[in-house]
Amino acid sequence: MLNRRHLRIKALHYLYAFHQAGNNDVAKMEKELLAGVEKVNELFLWYASLFGELVHYANIEIERGRNKRLPSYEDLNPNLRFVENKVFHAIIESKELNQRIQQKKISWVGEQELVKKIFLELKAQTYFQDYMLKPDFSFETERSFAEKICTRFFPFCEPLQFFLEEKNIIWIDDHEVVLTALQRTIKKIKDQATLPFLIPSLYKDEEDDRKFMLELFRKTLMPVDSFEEMISEKTKNWEIERLAVIDVILIKMALTEAIYFPNIPVKVTLNEYIELAKQYSTPKSQQFVNGILDNIFSDLKKSGRIKKTGRGLVE
């Protein structure tokens, strides 16, 4: 589920929190970092479990229509395409999903009004109407509709996003990666339950990815004086304390990666941290971080401190 960029983002968040806290308890912050990453799984469970809640609410509305004193033809003969969607039911009936939901105590109990708002917003979407009235109907149509909910509805549904933000503010950067994982998982569901809905792994390679993230965090904090000297030399008109905190942390992370991770190409490191500066810092940070890193990397290569190993990495 999590790629290397997202692991860099997680390390960045907790390095910033460590700086802001002003303490020296690296071990404690490492535990918080790992716990924060594990929380990404919970966000996946909230999104996946919402399909069942929406189907449940739609069924309640259908029953209300049927039980009206003077039901219309549409009330007595409702369109069941939404509530009978096979992909939704593959998710709802997933044993693994239900076990994880129970373990993590994920529950929409007491949130009926929220679910109603979410459903009514979904119902107002053009693709919802297209799905309900589509003449050529198939399992692929059902699966495509479920994927659209992940990519075109969940990220932009304000009541849902506000609810999740209230649950956990650290999820603010996790929605895209989680919804992409959910959409890809749905794409794998086959008709007649030949392949059930399975929760994707948090890491692509747990041992390797956890090691990368923790080492990046630890080693960015280790040679503080050395890195600050390098940055100061390239920013002679600025005191390091006056630079944007995020910019300094990003530069230190990039230096850590370039020096201590021999299997990652320098170009990849440079591009990744320029993008992170663009995303998380000031409008001018992208150019600033690029210029500083380009200069320092050039010096480090000349001095032999950057040593890359592996095919295509030796310069």
Helix content: 55-70%
Oligomerization status of the protein chains: single chain
Unreliable spans: none
- Mean pLDDT across the residues is 92
Determine the structural class based on helices, strands and strand pairing.
mainly alpha
Structural domain tally: 2
Rg calc? 25 Å
Proportion of residues in β-strands: under 5%
List the helices and strands in order: HHHHHHHHHHHHHHH
Largest sheet: none
Distance between the termini: 32 Å
Count every beta strand, where a strand is a DSSP E run of 2 or more residues: 0
Q: Please report the number of helical segments.
A: 15
Quick one: overall form?
A: elongated
What can you see in these coordinates?
This protein has helices spanning 4-21, 26-66, 73-76, 86-92, 95-104, 112-123, 126-133, 139-153, 158-167, 175-187, 206-221, 224-234, 245-260, 266-280, 285-303. The protein is mainly α and 315 residues long. It has 2 domains: 4-193, no CATH class; 223-303, Orthogonal Bundle (N-utilizing Substance Protein B Homolog, Chain A). The radius of gyration is 25 Å and the shape is elongated.
